Amino acid sequence: MAATGGVYAAVDFAGSEGSLPFATGTLAKGGKVVVTGLIGGGLTIGTAMFPLKAMTIEGTMTGTLDEARELMALAHGGNIPPIPFRERPLAEAQAALDDLRAGRVVGRSVLVN
Known about the structure:
single chain, Rossmann fold, two-stranded parallel ribbon
């Protein structure tokens, strides 16, 4: 937090009483948490934090457990090609965003220091 001031996006793959407070706590002002995990639990947060942080919490369902098992079986069987990624120096962050907006990114771009 000291180095970045917080993150603008977090994905909570667990959705637990420990992970969701951590995700919302790491947000910068205007940040968003997307919850896809189904472990369960609750989130207690002061309502003043929503306008103060201007944060968004969104849920999404990515598939059933059976579909996840099928996907993992395909991956373990070598039937899914790896997602391409490109490492770029942190100094190219703006160029990476420009490429993303222009549709020139296939797979992932990873910024490294």
